[in-house]
Amino acid sequence: MEDEEIANQQIPDRNLRKKHQLMLERLSARHQTRLETRKSDSPESSTASAFLSHFNDLKKSITSQIECAADPSRLPHISSSISDLEKLVAEHSYLPTKSDHLSKQSRI
User: Fold this and answer.
1) What is the pLDDT of residues 10-34, one digit of tens each?
2) Cα separation of 108 and 26, whole Å?
3) Ordered DSSP codes for 54-66
4) CA pair distance 81, 62, nearest whole angstrom
5) How far apart are CA 72 and CA 3, in angstroms?
6) Cα dihedral 12, 18, 19, 20 sign
7) Of 34, 35, 81, 87, which has the most beta carbons under 10 Å away?
């Protein structure tokens, strides 16, 4: 409210005051949208972190299985683990990037 009073004192013309107020509202809405966008970007980065963490865990597990595999009967299990890792990578490699999202938003 203080901003409105200051604006009213500095801008004597009624039309200019109205335009100024509308501009302030648009800027406020834009700022709020940016804040919401930043909040929605956080899960994306945590999803990437979760994927990398899961990938690293599977990779370490497979590496230790290979190092400890003196018995050939363990090879099918190791092969299955490698296939699971490949499947995980394939599933997550088709996620659109942030730039894809932005380009689609600009088209709308």
Assistant:
1) 666 888 888 888 888 887 777 777 7
2) 19
3) HHHHHHHHHHHHH
4) 7
5) 77
6) positive
7) 81
* Ramachandran sector of residue 69 (left: φ over 0; alpha: ψ -120 to 50; beta: rest): beta
Look at residue 1 and give its three-state secondary structure. Answer: coil
- In this structure, are residues 58 and 81 in contact, taking their beta carbons and an 8 Å threshold? yes
Collapse the DSSP code of 4 into the 3-class scheme (helix H, G, I; strand E, B; otherwise coil) and give the result: helix
> Is 11 in contact with 17 (CB distance < 8 Å)?
yes
CB atoms within 10 A of CB 12: 8
List, for residues 45-78, the tens digit of each pLDDT value. 567 788 888 889 999 988 888 888 777 888 888 8
